[in-house]
């Protein structure tokens, strides 16, 4: 039987579509990851069954077989559970492994498009539900900015190292923030159009727009 890509013990297999090397996880890290995934799975299952508003942290905790305080220890809010995935460190590692002379925007393009493809392959329902909630629930859309900012900081740190710029370089921060913001807008656009479009193609189109500007 093939391994479930979302099985907590195989969760870092999500890394494989992006890079073949990663640091082995210790027992403590595996336990934390198992708990995070259990909370996320319970949340998405409950939202699918009873809707977003009816899915309380208390019900999530009960379904995940943890305490409400444990839920809050891993996720500051319900919106964070919906928006957070395990791909931040994966993307960071994949970006470090891009060719040294590659243009930063093209490195980001490769990592983001492959991440979207992997999400659609391994977590299709969660990915689609997350995008719909960005459109339907104002609190989720508002929180998206914060979660994107965290990923942006991770990627900016890698680009700073790769380009020899300072850790707080403005141009690196602007580039990564613009790319991640554009990615979020592409996902909202995808959801508004009932997810009929090819999401990976939309990400390419989005980054083409950042590169070339709006052609009149």
UniProtKB/TrEMBL annotation:
Keywords for this protein: DNA-binding, Transcription, Transcription regulation
PROSITE patterns: HTH_TETR_2 (PS50977)
Domain of life: Bacteria
InterPro entries xref list: Homeodomain-like_sf, HTH-type_TetR-like_transc_reg, HTH_TetR, MftR_C
A Pfam family: TetR_N
Domain HTH tetR-type: 33-93
DNA-binding region: 56-75
Keyword Transcription appears in the UniProt entry: yes
PANTHER family: HTH-TYPE TRANSCRIPTIONAL REGULATOR BETI, HTH-TYPE TRANSCRIPTIONAL REGULATOR RUTR
Protein known as: TetR family transcriptional regulator
Species of origin: Streptomyces gobitricini
């Amino acid at each position: 039987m093939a391994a479930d890509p979302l099985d907590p013990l195989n969760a870092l297999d999500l890394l494989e579509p992006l890079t073949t090397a990663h640091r082995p996880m210790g027992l403590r890290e595996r336990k934390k990851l198992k708990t995070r995934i259990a909370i996320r799975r319970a949340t998405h299952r409950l939202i699918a069954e009873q809707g977003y508003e009816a899915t309380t942290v208390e019900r999530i905790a009960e379904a995940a077989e943890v305490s409400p305080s444990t839920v809050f220890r891993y996720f500051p809010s319900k919106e964070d559970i919906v928006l957070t995935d395990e791909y931040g460190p994966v993307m960071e590692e994949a970006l470090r492994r891009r060719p040294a002379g590659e243009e930063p925007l093209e490195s980001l393009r490769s990592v983001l498009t492959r991440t979207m493809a992997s999400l659609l392959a391994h977590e299709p329902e969660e990915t689609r539900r997350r995008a719909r909630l960005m459109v339907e629930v104002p609190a989720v859309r508002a929180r998206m900015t914060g979660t994107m900012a965290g990923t942006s900081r991770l990627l900016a740190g890698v680009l700073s190292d790769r380009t020899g710029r300072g850790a707080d370089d403005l141009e690196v921060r602007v580039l990564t923030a613009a790319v991640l913001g554009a990615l979020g807008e592409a996902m909202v656009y995808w959801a508004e159009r009932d997810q009929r479009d090819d999401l990976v193609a939309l990400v390419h189109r989005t980054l083409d727009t950042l590169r070339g500007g709006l052609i009149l």
